[in-house]
Design brief:
Layout (H helix, E strand, L loop, with lengths): L6 H13 L5 H38 L6 H14 L1
């Protein structure tokens, strides 16, 4: 497999190789891809959790368990202030 990099990416790969952190460009690319796939899987997991929370919220609204907008905003502001 051949991969074409922009001059900027090539420069950055060379910098990492010179630093001694990686012994070859292949090693660096393998590590980058491993981290990318890990990130992608976590992002998918987070989106799935968000989708579930949205579904639960919509179900609560369907059951009449919603709260008025101003009250919801107040609760959100209070939670943010507590952080």
């Amino acid at each position: 497999m051949n991969v074409s990099l922009t001059p900027e990416l090539e420069r950055r790969v060379e910098e990492r190789l010179k630093s001694g952190l990686y012994t070859s460009a292949s090693e660096l690319v393998r590590e980058a891809l491993r981290l990318f796939f890990q990130y992608e899987a976590e992002r998918s997991r987070q989106i799935g959790l968000l989708d579930q929370r949205i579904r639960e919220g919509l179900e609560q609204l369907d059951r009449g368990e919603g709260i008025p907008g101003p009250e919801a905003r107040g609760r959100s502001r209070a939670r943010l202030a507590d952080r």
